[in-house]
Design brief:
Keywords: Adaptive immunity, Disulfide bond, Glycoprotein, Immunity, Membrane, MHC II, Transmembrane, Transmembrane helix
Number of domains: 1
Largest sheet: 4 strands, antiparallel
Strand content: 25-35%
Structural class: alpha+beta
Strand order of the largest sheet: 1-2-3-4
Order of helices and strands: HEEEEHH
Distance between the termini: 43 Å
Number of helices: 3
Subcellular location: Membrane
CATH architecture: Roll
Main location: membrane
Protein name: MHC class II beta chain N-terminal domain-containing protein
Membrane topology: Single-pass type I membrane protein
CATH class: Alpha Beta
């Protein structure tokens, strides 16, 4: 899945096209569910992190992507322009969070001493 749309330049060896990009970098996506009173109030968060800095996130309570840094602004703008992407992310509250709550409940909530 290519988040930024179709690549506009053909692939090439990094040393040829991107000499400044020869070092190490980290990119991470983190999904998180927050529960209040079981599944009565559930919040889904998807965080996008680049080099240990959160650049953009989706919050199901807000319903769209929010840029956290200038680097995240183009991504938030692009993803917010895709109705199918927003619909998919909004549905994650039920599909991902509520579903996993039910699956994991015997090993988490019911296991408290």
């Amino acid at each position: 899945w290519w988040w930024g749309g179709a690549p506009t330049v053909p692939p090439c060896p990094p040393m040829t096209c991107c000499p400044a990009q020869t070092g190490f970098f980290q990119e991470m996506d983190k999904g998180e569910c927050q529960y209040l009173n079981g599944t009565k109030q559930v919040k889904y968060l998807m965080k996008y992190i680049y080099n240990r800095e959160q650049t953009v996130h989706f919050d199901s309570d807000v319903g769209h992507f929010v840029a956290d840094t200038p680097l995240g602004e183009p991504d938030a703008k692009y993803w917010n322009s895709l109705p199918e992407e927003l619909e998919y992310r909004r549905a994650e509250v039920d599909r991902f969070c509520r579903h996993n709550y039910g699956v994991n409940r015997p090993f988490t909530v019911e296991r408290r001493g």
